[in-house]
Structures are given as structure tokens and as C-alpha cells.
Amino acid sequence: DYYTSIKKAILDYSLKNARERERLGLPIGFHPPTDYGSKPLIGLEPSEEWRNNAVMGAMKIRDTLRVFSKATLELMNIWPEYAKVLFVDLPNDFDCKYLEGFAKEQRIRMEEVKNKLANKWQQDAAEILHKELEYIPTDPPELRKSFFDAVATLMSNQVRSLIENSITAYEEFFKKYKKKTYATAAE
User: Fold this and answer.
1) CA triple 26-30-41, angle to 5 deg
2) Which partner for 150 in 44, 56, 66, 100 could form a disulfide, CB atoms 3.0-4.6 Å apart?
3) pTM value?
4) Are residues 131 and 53 in contact, defined by beta-carbon separation less than 8 angstroms?
5) How is residue 93 annotated by DSSP?
6) What whole-number distance in Å separates Cα of residue 35 and Cα of residue 30?
């Protein structure tokens, strides 16, 4: 039964932790759960035809998708350096700023981050992609196009997440100062 298997897997995983066993008042188990993948499977072996089909399927995926691409993994690995940088430079709660100065600081920060992405990030990405070019087959040409479409999507999503995080930080900053009523000019 599928649901029983899931419950057993969750229980086995939980009981691997000594503190959890102690919390539940259970002694050391007589039959410790198997760490799947830690030892060879004993039981049904796939047929030669099945293995060949699996290998051919993996090769087809590898040749058409870029999930296995070293370049896309490297692009994802360098991104955390840039992901923590926001397009906004928000003061802490105790800094008093005039609106003009605040707006100027934000424009400067946006320009700094834009330049960092345009210069450093693009250069790093170009180096990674240049190294990958020798491994991408030129025939059929659609394969190269699909690779670069995938890279463009990845990089676009990375920049989009940076913009979304910046907007969220901006919104949270201004929410701190929201009031139910505001003073009028006469007051």
C-alpha cells in the first residue's frame, strides 16, 4: 500500500535520530532502517532491454535539455554572490533622511548594482559560457539555440528574483512608517 509505505518511510527516517527515539521512549531498534542507496539493491533486476532504454532516455535528455550542463550549474553557483545585493539602499530606523537625499541614494545604489551586474556578472557568465561552447554540438543548430534559450531563461529568472527581493524590501521599509491618518498641511 502506497500510504503505508510513506508512513513507514517517515517513521524510519524519524527514528534514525537518537534524540527522537529518546523522546518517544524507544530503545535502539533491532532492525535499523535501510539507508536507501547505501548498498546495492537486492531483489528484482531490470532486464537488459530496460537498462538500454533507460540509458538511451538519459542520453536523449542530456542532449536536448541543459539540466546536466556544467555551465548552468556554474551560473547557479556564482549567483549567490549577486543575489544578496539589492537595488535599494535602505537606511536603518534611526537615520533621518530628507526625501531628496533618500531618492538620490536610491538612484546611486541602483546604478551601482546595475553596473555590477552589467560588468562583473555578465563577464563571469560570458567566461563560463565561452568554456561550454566547445562541448555543445553544432549540429543540429537547434541544439545550440535551445541551450542559449535555457541560459537566457535562467539568467532572466535570477535578475527577476533580485528585482522582486528589492521591491519587497522597499515595500517592507515603507510599511514601517504607514499610519492610519496623516497630518494635514494646516496642522
Assistant:
1) 125
2) 66
3) 0.58
4) no
5) T
6) 15
Q: Number of helices (H) and strands (E) in the chain: give both, helices first.
A: 8, 0
CB 154 within 8 A of CB 72: yes
Q: Which three cell numbers stand for residue 91?
A: 537606511
DSSP states along 108-167: HHHHHHHHHIIIIIHHHHHHHHHHHHTTS--SSHHHHHHHHHHHHHHHHHHHHHHHHHHH
End-to-end CA distance of the chain: 72
In degrees rounded to 5, what are phi and psi of residue 66? -110, 25
Question: If you search the block for the grid coordinates 549540429, which residue do you land on?
Answer: 139
Greatest extent of the chain over all pairs of C-alpha atoms, in Å: 86
Q: Which sign does the torsion angle of CA 145, 134, 138, 69 carry?
A: negative
Find out whether 68 and 62 touch, Cβ atoms under 8 Å.
Answer: yes
Task: Tell me, rounded to whole angstroms, the distance of Cα 155 from its chain centroid.
Answer: 11
The position carrying cell 533491532 is: 30
Closest CA to 90 of 157, 176, 158: 176
Per residue in 131-166, pLDDT (tens digit) is 888 777 777 777 778 788 888 888 999 999 999 999
Q: Cell 532572466, residue?
A: 156
